[in-house]
Amino acid sequence: MASKTRNIPSWSDVKSKLEHFDRAGLVGLLADLHNLSHDNQAFLHSRLALGADPLAPYKRTISRWIYPDLSRNQGISVAKSKKAIADYRKAVGLPDGVAELSVFYCEQAARLSAECALEDEGYFMALVRMFDKALAAVMTMEPSQRKPMLERLDAVRSMTNAVGWGVKDEMDELWADHVVSD
C-alpha cells in the first residue's frame, strides 16, 4: 500500500520558505496579512502594542456576539465571543488583559440576560463558566488591581438576580469558592 502524502503544509514548510525572504519581502507579506482581515489587524496591533487600547477590537467582538443588537436581528454566538478572548490570549496573553476581557464578557452577557428576559440555558451556563474563569483570572492579580475587577464581577452577580436557571446561585457558590476563601 502506498504511503499517504501530506497535502497540508506544516509550520516547518512555511518557515523554510520564509528563510528565503528578504526584509522587504517579509514586511510585504505582513502587510498583506494585516490588510486581509480585522482579526489579523487585531492580532498584530495587540502583539506590537499599537493603538490606545489594544483590547478594543476584542471587546467589540465580544459585545457584538454576546450582547448583539437584537433590533437588527443580529444573532448571538457564545463561541465567537469566547474566541475573541482566545485570540487575545494567542496574540499577547497578558493575564490582566485576559482578566479584563473575561470580566467584560460577563458584564455584557449579564446585561443581555437582565434586559431581554433571555431564556437560553446554554447561554446562561456559558456565562457561569466564564464567571468562574474571570474570578480565577482576577484572583491572580495584585490586590490593588483585583478590587475594582471584583466589584465589577459582584455587579454581574447582582444583575443575574432575576435570570433564573440557578445562575445567581451558581455564581454565589463560585464567589464563595474564589473570593471568600481568599
Give a short synopsis of this structure.
Helices cover 70% and strands 0% of the residues. The protein contains 9 helices and no strands.
What is the secondary structure topology, with strand pairs?
Blueprint: H1 11-18, H2 23-36, H3 38-47, H4 56-66, H5 78-91, H6 95-116, H7 121-138, H8 143-159, H9 167-180
Helix pairs in contact: 2-3, 3-5, 4-5, 4-6, 5-6, 6-7, 6-8, 7-8, 7-9
Computed structural class? mainly alpha
**Average of the residue pLDDT scores:** 87
- Whole-Å distance between the termini? 61 Å
Q: State the share of residues found in helices, binned by percent.
A: over 70%
Q: Which residues sit in consecutive blocks of at least 5 with pLDDT less than 50? A: none
- How many strands, what sense, and barrel or not for the largest sheet? none
Order of helices and strands: HHHHHHHHH
Q: Radius of gyration over alpha carbons?
A: 20 Å
Task: State which percent range the strand residues make up.
Answer: under 5%
Tally of helical runs: 9
Tell me the total number of β-strands.
0
The gross shape turns out to be elongated
